[in-house]
Amino acid sequence: MAGEPQQVVVFDLSGEIYALDIAFVHEIIRIQPATPVPGAADYIEGLINLRGRVVPVVDLRKRFGLPIRATGDKSRIIVVQVSDDIVGVVVDAVSEVITVTADVIEPAARVVTGLDAEYIRSIAKLEGHLVAVLHPDKILDLPEQQEMALGTPER
User: Fold this and answer.
1) What does residue 72 show for φ and ψ, rounded to 5 degrees?
2) Is the dihedral of CA 131, 135, 138, 144 positive or negative?
3) What CATH superfamily is the domain 6-150?
4) How many Cβ atoms sit within 10 Å of the Cβ of residue 147?
5) Using a CB cutoff of 8 Å and minimum separation of 24, what contacts does 32-35 make?
6) How far is CA 144 from the centre of its chain?
7) In tens digits, what is the pLDDT along the chain, a chain of 155 residues?
């Protein structure tokens, strides 16, 4: 990220604009029914079959503690790399892929504090608004990833 331009996928979540570095994004797909996983965390919607691969799906609204809303026509699943696995994240809408340059990016540590700061990799200053670029590895922590892989909670 130091000095290098980066492409990000920009998306809407509960009226706020977020982004993910395109290097972590495998693909963007339409919403599809997920098979529930009994005992999984409430923000895990379930599992989907993506061309023969079982992929856990996370509702980012629930994960971030935002108001729950039914998915709509513009809702999408962004399939991202999280550590050694791929995970689908449900967002309200994907708007565009843009290139951001180093001069418009601030490290999150400088501008974001609090519990939610761990999810944010950097902040991009774009045309009068700020966009939080999420850190995909922080969307789920390691115990939660292991739980999803096993399909059962460790209790």
Assistant:
1) -120, -170
2) positive
3) CheA-289, Domain 4 (2.40.50.180)
4) 20
5) 32/77
6) 15
7) 456 788 999 999 988 888 999 999 999 999 999 999 999 988 999 999 999 999 999 998 888 888 888 888 999 999 998 878 899 999 999 999 988 888 787 776 655 545 456 677 777 887 777 888 887 877 765 444 445 444 544 43
Return the bridge partners of 134, or none. 20, 120
Domain ranges of the chain: 6-150
Main-chain phi, psi angles of 151, to 5 degrees: 80, 5
Which one-letter amino acid corresponds to residue 7?
Answer: Q
Task: Kindly provide the b/e burial profile for residues 2-25, where b requires at least 16 CB atoms within 10 angstroms of the residue's own CB.
Answer: eeeebebbbbbbeeeebbbbeebb
